[in-house]
Design a protein that fits this description.
The protein has 1243 residues and is mostly beta strands. It is built from four helices and 115 strands. A hairpin with a 4-residue loop joins strand 25 and strand 26.
Length: 1243
């Protein structure tokens, strides 16, 4: 044993290697052996998709080994296995056929293998993935789930959801609710009812998110106690009520989450109409129920719901409320019409309930009404139309029913547009709306240069208006009826339209990151609507602001366009956004070669790369006598020497310059000597000087040189050797051969000359004998020679020494000059020597004047021979008195001031006190806006007196009638009696100036009531309200009408309210007597509802000439706000009025149409029947053929006396005995008569 262990220790490395080799060989053998069999799973015919199996579903799958003969296969070695038996269970662990059964929701993989004989080595393998669908497994025998959805009645109810997931499975379900106010769900699928009624969707999703299941939950909808206590809810015809919520306060009437979760319906749409928001509308009188229940597609859950009615839905899942629609007139409570109009009134009853309606008018001179409710408007005024009906069946316990409507009749004249806005060149039709269509309408325009009008050939009531130029014009329509001229107006605003837009530029190139304003020009230059929209075709390349400023944000090309909102005009600009080049490199920078080489190819690289980068370059040679280069970088040698190939970008870099890359070529004849023509040069600052360099040998290949200044702040040098002295000091200028580097140098000295001379005084005036100094300064500060030389133009007047000291000798004038010794530049001082002043006095020292008066102040200056006797005048208060340069004093307003007179020389002063008196020029009573004072009340008035500087600013108050107004001297006015008086405020200074105000003592308005106080109108329709003032004998009864929101409703000066847009606002009636008493009307404007269908109550009628028949039409929806129009296709057969009353005119057929404003229509065929004769005379035994014109129906003929005349079935009449009788024809229940007279046979 010891020897063995010793060998192991000694040879452990070799033994390990052998073991590893053995294992690897075995694995390789196994892999090679396993890979020699293919095994596959085959599904049965008509198999279900493996990804959509349901629980308990099973299939028989077959394992096949296509690479082996049947005799070679041992199916006992085929093994079946599932990755999760809680999802897919495999029946029988081995064999050719495997029974696969879905046991629960989830995903599992089934593996079939073929193993070796000992069952340890897999020789072939195949896998198949299966998915079993996630499903809810709750039993529908549970009453809460009987319909396939969960139904809760009250808050806190619970229901456990179950699925087909096996509890021991690894599949986890996450539960969520999309409406937790209706129902919540916990992690185990326990659903709990919330307080809100409605619908919720519960979702269960696998944690792998590959499957989900949804369940609908409804919570019963309940009516609030408040809504229940309202029953029955009372509304009138065409009145609304919202059973879901109070739209003004937001208070809810049910526990529903939102209206869109609810179905609202009634048990009689002909009585009550519902909508999806909870609004109900009264239609016909009666008591019906409105049902409220959750909004789901019930029939999709259970076919039993197909036979459910709304009352059953509400009983099981919701609530119902009782609604009473009162008896009323469907047209509303008030109507307005014009003289001559007819109105067809309707009560809100069904045909069955509406029999026996009696119509009456309380003012037949204004409006009459017939038995069918057709009102004819006779004259302007008001009338009350009353409908009464006896019907004990309409409402239990009620027999008599009454409804009223107020009719206001006006005599109207207007135009269909009171204002219109058009563009130049546009046209529109303008029509006069008249009561009397027989009287001619005349038209005129106040500015024919702005609009033109063309009268229609068909009628004087219609014109065509065309805009000619920008501006405003007023069109007047006039009609004279019975000597009264009526006017209507249309204000036309003609705008200048956009004809064209132009952009500048139309092509543009900008750098990325840069912005550029594009100029937009309108044609014409300033149209009325200049609103435009800017658009970029590619905002990744180019953005554009609302003001047309484009900005490059990426490289490339884009188009910026501008679109006008007026006329849709478009203009464009093509924009290239370039990305600047940042670098360029050549393939070589230096090439040393010989002429015999002949040529050389260069290449380049530009950065960055991408869209918007300009990669083009320009190639050039510094010396084409030495070498040339083409635009492909191909270099050709010409002669020996040195030259540079330059590659320059067409584009510029970020520093604003083109980028360069160079390659130096050397084909040399070197330079051996460089000399300059000067080695020392002295310059003044600003001077220029040229140096010349001599290059040897003369035939050197590269004679170019470089000029360099050692101090460019002193001297600069250009490439041609031109020196410029830019600063004082010393520097050296170096010239260097570019070929050999040989240099030559010149020393430069630059000094600063005097450029300016400044003197401390340019002009002076001194008295004789004065000595003073002038100072001069040479500039600039760094000038080298600043010496100044002084001189005088006249030594007899004044002298000056070398230091600038000046002595005044005699009166007179001379020039003192300071001159630069360096450059001769000079400056001067003009000197005046004068005789001095000793004193001053005035002609007045104290004086009084009136405002507006003038006087002259005269000064006396001593001595008399003083050279400078000039003086200045100054007022201490120029608002009181002014003085001009000549001493003329003018009084301006009341007060005192002092006029000061000062000598220019020495500043000696004399003064005069001035007192100015001033009258009042105006008196203004400040409270001009006050017109009325309530009787018995007082009001303080004030008066403004001007000027403020008036000497006496008091006023005296007085009243023209102290029986009406009394006024105190403090301006307090007291109304002591009704009437009018003038209050006067008079200036107290005797100037006679006064002001007045006319006041009226009134009996004030105490209250204003408006009737009705609540108005509902449709958009575009109007209703007039009436304001009543209390007390009735108030003095001022005018009313001022206004709307709290004219965007919702407007009101005119007569109190006529017109709806504009849907909403709620208030209309105010305000007193104009200064007491600001206000009456209020709440206005609700409702949306206009167009008609979707219209049905006439008869599809055909048969009539006789002269007979009338009223037709009626029912409009849908019942809440439609459309008006309808009746039209006859042939008025020679039958006519129809605006109320649908048809009058038969003559024999024939025609169609009566009823057309709603929205365009929907219905028709009724009218057959007017007439006998070919209504009276005939025959001799005995003569015959006559009677016929009904146009009749296609069966005719039944009768005779009232067979002994006088007979008639057969075809209408043939045979005279029998002498006498008279009547032949009767019956068609469609209608009777026609022909009188037959039989005479004896003439002999």
């Amino acid at each position: 044993m010891g020897t063995f262990l010793g060998h192991v220790k000694r040879y452990w490395k070799q033994l390990t290697a052998v073991a590893i080799f053995a294992v690897v060989s075995a694995i390789a053998f196994s892999v090679a052996f396993a890979s020699q069999y293919d095994i596959v799973m085959s599904k049965p015919d008509n198999a279900t998709d493996p990804n959509s199996w349901t629980k308990d579903y099973y299939e028989l799958w077959t394992a096949n080994l296509p690479g082996l003969e049947a005799s070679e296969i041992d199916y006992s070695r085929v093994k079946w296995q599932s990755s999760d038996n809680n999802v897919i269970m495999v029946g029988g662990p081995s064999g050719q056929v495997g029974r696969l059964t879905a046991t629960g929701a989830g995903t599992a993989t089934v593996t079939v293998t073929y193993v070796d004989t000992d069952g340890t080595t897999v020789l072939g393998e195949y896998t198949q993935k299966f998915m079993v669908k996630l499903e809810v497994t709750n039993d529908r025998s549970d009453v809460r789930y009987q319909y396939g959805f969960v139904s809760f009645e009250k808050t806190g109810d619970t229901y456990q959801l179950n699925t087909n997931v096996v509890p021991s499975s690894n599949v986890k379900i996450n539960w969520t609710s999309d409406n937790e106010q209706v129902a919540t769900v916990d992690g185990n699928g326990l659903v709990t009812a919330g307080a809100a009624g409605g619908v919720a969707t519960i979702t269960g999703e696998t944690d792998t998110k590959d499957q989900r299941v949804t369940i609908t939950v409804i919570r019963k909808i309940e009516a609030t106690t408040e809504l229940q206590n309202m029953q029955p809810i009372k509304i009138g015809p065409n009145e609304f009520f919202n059973v879901y919520e109070d739209k003004e306060t937001g208070k809810k009437y049910t526990n529903a989450v939102s209206a869109n979760q609810v179905i609202f319906s009634s048990d009689g749409e002909q009585y009550i109409v519902t909508d999806t928001t909870g609004f109900i509308k009264g239609v016909n009188a009666g008591v019906k129920s409105v049902y409220i229940y959750p909004n789901i597609d019930y029939a999709s859950f259970d076919e039993r719901f197909a036979n459910y009615t709304p009352d059953r839905f509400a009983a099981e899942f919701g609530a119902s409320v009782s609604v009473r629609v009162d008896f009323g007139i469907s047209n509303g409570k008030e109507l307005t019409g014009a003289v001559g109009d007819t109105i067809n009134l309707r009560v809100n009853t069904t045909d069955e309930d509406g029999r026996g309606v009696n119509w009456t008018s309380n003012n037949t001179s204004v409006a009459t009404v017939d038995s069918n409710g057709v009102v004819t408007l006779k004259s302007s005024g008001e009338a009350i139309i009353t409908a009464t009906m006896d019907n004990p069946n309409l409402f239990p316990g009620e027999t008599n029913h009454t409804a009223q409507i107020k009719i206001t009749v006006i005599d109207n004249f207007s135009v269909d547009f009171t204002s219109k806005q058009i563009n130049v060149g546009d046209k529109f039709e303008l029509s006069a709306l008249v009561t009397d269509d027989t009287a001619k309408v005349s038209w005129m325009v106040d500015d024919e240069s702005i609009v033109s009008i063309t009268e229609s050939e068909e009628s004087s009531r219609k014109i065509t208006v065309e805009g000619l130029k920008k501006g405003k014009a007023k069109i007047t329509a006039m009609q004279e009826v019975n000597g009264v001229i009526k006017y209507a107006y249309c204000e036309v605003d003609v705008n200048e339209p956009v004809q064209n837009v132009v952009l500048f530029p139309t092509n543009l190139s900008i750098t990325i990151g840069d912005s550029y304003p594009i100029v937009l020009t309108f044609e014409p230059e300033r149209p009325d609507n200049m609103e435009v929209k800017w658009v970029s075709s590619n905002e990744d390349i180019l953005t554009v602001s609302d003001s047309g400023v484009v900005k490059g944000v990426g490289g490339g090309d884009a188009v910026v366009s501008v679109i006008t909102l007026d006329g849709i005009k478009v203009a464009s600009c093509d924009v290239h956004v370039r990305v600047p080049v940042t670098g360029i490199t050549l393939s070589k920078n230096i090439v040393e070669t010989t002429l015999s080489a002949g040529n050389y190819q260069l290449s380049y690289t530009i950065t960055p790369e991408g869209e918007g980068v300009d990669t083009s370059v320009i190639w050039s040679s510094s010396n084409e006598d030495i070498l040339t280069v083409d635009q492909n970088g191909f270099v050709t040698f010409v002669s020996p020497g040195n030259a540079t190939v330059i590659c320059q970008t067409n584009d510029i870099g970020t520093d604003g310059n083109n980028l360069l890359a160079t390659c130096d070529f050397f084909i040399s004849e070197p330079v051996t000597s460089v000399t300059l023509d000067f080695t020392d040069v002295t310059l003044k600052l600003g001077d220029t000087f040229r140096l010349t360099a001599e290059i040897l040998p003369v035939n050197a290949t590269d004679k170019t040189v470089t000029w360099i200044s050692s101090n460019t702040s002193v001297v600069t040098v250009d490439e041609n050797g031109l020196l410029t002295a830019v600063g004082t000091g010393s520097a050296a200028v170096l010239v260097q051969s570019n070929d050999s580097g040989i240099t030559a140098m010149c020393n430069i000295n630059v000094y600063q000359p005097v450029e300016t001379v400044e003197i401390n005084y340019t002009e002076m005036s001194v008295r004789k004998g004065t000595v003073f100094w002038l100072y001069a300064k040479a500039g600039p500060d760094n000038a080298v020679n600043k010496t100044i030389i002084w001189s005088t133009s006249n030594p007899r007047i004044a002298t000056v020494d070398e230091s600038g000291m000046v002595t005044a000798i005699e009166p007179g004038e001379c020039i003192i000059t300071a001159t630069s010794q360096d450059t001769g530049i000079f400056a001067t001082c003009s000197l005046t020597v004068t005789e001095p002043v000793t004193g001053i006095s005035l002609n007045y020292t104290d004086i009084a004047i009136y405002a507006g008066d003038k006087f002259a102040l005269i000064p006396s200056v001593e001595p008399i021979d003083a050279d400078n006797k000039a003086v200045t005048y100054l007022s201490s208060d120029t608002s009181i008195a002014t003085v001009d340069e000549n001493g003329i004093v003018t009084g301006l307003k009341g007060g005192e001031c002092v006029i000061l007179v000062t000598t220019v020389e020495r500043g000696l002063v004399a003064s005069c006190k001035v007192t100015v008196y001033e009258f009042v020029t105006s008196v203004t009573i400040n409270e001009k806006d006050v017109k009325y004072i309530n009787n018995g009340a007082s009001k303080a008035f004030t008066a403004s007196v001007t000027p403020a500087s008036a000497t006496n600013r008091g006023v005296i108050w007085s009243s023209s009638d102290t029986n009406v107004f009394r006024v105190s001297q403090r301006g307090v006015v007291t109304a002591v009696g009704l009437g009018t008086a003038t209050i006067t405020a008079t200036a107290a200074d005797g100037s006679g100036i006064f002001d007045t105000i006319v006041l009226q003592s009134i009996r004030p308005v105490s209250t204003i009531s408006v009737s009705p106080s609540y108005v509902t109108v449709i958009e575009g329709q109007s209703q007039r309200v009436t304001a009543t003032i209390s007390p009735a004998d108030a003095t001022i009864k005018e009313i001022e009408w206004s709307s709290s929101n004219p965007e919702i409703a407007v009101v005119d000066y007569n109190g006529e309210i017109t709806g504009v847009t849907a909403g709620i606002c208030y209309v105010y009636a305000k007193s104009t007597d200064g007491n600001d008493i206000v009456g209020t009307v709440k206005v609700t404007v409702k949306r206009a509802v167009p008609a979707t269908s219209i049905v006439i109550n008869a599809s055909s009628v048969t009539m006789f000439p002269g007979q009338t028949r009223p037709l009626s039409a029912r409009v849908r929806p019942s809440n439609s706000t459309d008006n309808s129009m009746w039209v006859s296709s042939d008025t020679s057969v039958a006519t129809v009025d605006g109320n649908g009353v048809v009058t038969a005119r003559g024999q024939g057929n025609c169609i009566i149409y009823c057309v709603a404003e929205s365009g929907v229509e219905d028709e009724c065929e009218v057959n007017v029947l007439a006998l070919n004769s209504t009276s005939i005379t025959l001799e005995q035994y003569d015959n006559y053929m009677l016929d009904i014109y146009g009749c296609t129906e069966k005719i039944t003929w009768y005779t009232n006396n067979n002994r006088i005349a007979t008639v057969d079935s075809n209408g043939k009449v045979i005279a029998r005995g002498v006498g008279s009788t009547t032949i009767v024809a019956r068609v469609n229940g209608k009777l026609l008569y022909c009188r037959v007279t039989v005479t004896k046979i003439r002999k």
